[in-house]
């Protein structure tokens, strides 16, 4: 069985394919994905369908920039490159996610990310993303 961190990395590999079935296979049936910008998604199938939509319609690609685990839970820092639907401008969002696993599957994700009018990219102000090897445009 994969470690929790290996499972989360495998989830991100599946996420970037846009294959809803492959994505759903990483979640418990009753999983919940919480967000800072929209209501929670309930169930592995719902979570995977929304993720697949983001890949198909916005060209979303996620990169894990850093990860920590205590052997049971996983916390990652990520970058998502995507295309604005109205202009096709390539953008980046940055955030962090906390994963709770059960029987080797993801049962809960708490996703924290920001992109407001004063800082639409969500970049950490004053942080050298490129210098630290993080994804940049």
Descriptive keywords:
3 helices; single chain; six-stranded mixed sheet; globular; Nuclear Transport Factor 2, Chain: A; 137 residues; alpha+beta
Protein described:
The protein has 137 residues and is of the alpha+beta class. The protein has a single domain (4-112), classed as Nuclear Transport Factor 2, Chain: A, CATH 3.10.450.50. Helices cover 25% and strands 38% of the residues. It contains three helices and six strands. The protein has helices spanning 4-17, 20-24, 44-58, and strands at residues 27-34, 41-42, 61-69, 73-83, 90-102, 105-113. A six-stranded mixed β-sheet has the order 2-1-6-5-4-3, covered by helices on one side. The longest helix is centred in the middle third of the chain and has 15 residues, at 44-58. It is globular and about 40 Å long. The model has no long low-confidence stretch (mean pLDDT 91).
């Amino acid at each position: 069985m994969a470690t929790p961190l290996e499972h989360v990395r495998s989830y991100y590999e599946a996420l970037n394919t846009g294959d809803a079935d492959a994505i759903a296979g990483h979640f418990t049936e009753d999983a919940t994905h919480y967000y800072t910008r929209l209501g929670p998604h309930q169930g592995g199938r719902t979570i995977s369908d929304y993720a697949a939509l983001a890949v198909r319609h916005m060209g979303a690609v996620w990169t894990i920039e850093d990860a920590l685990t205590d052997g049971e839970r996983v916390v990652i820092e990520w970058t998502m490159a995507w295309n604005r639907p109205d202009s096709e401008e390539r953008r980046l969002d940055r955030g962090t996610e906390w994963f709770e696993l059960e029987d080797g599957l993801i049962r809960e994700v708490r996703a924290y990310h920001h992109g407001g009018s004063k800082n639409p990219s969500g970049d950490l102000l004053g942080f050298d993303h490129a210098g630290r090897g993080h994804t940049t445009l």
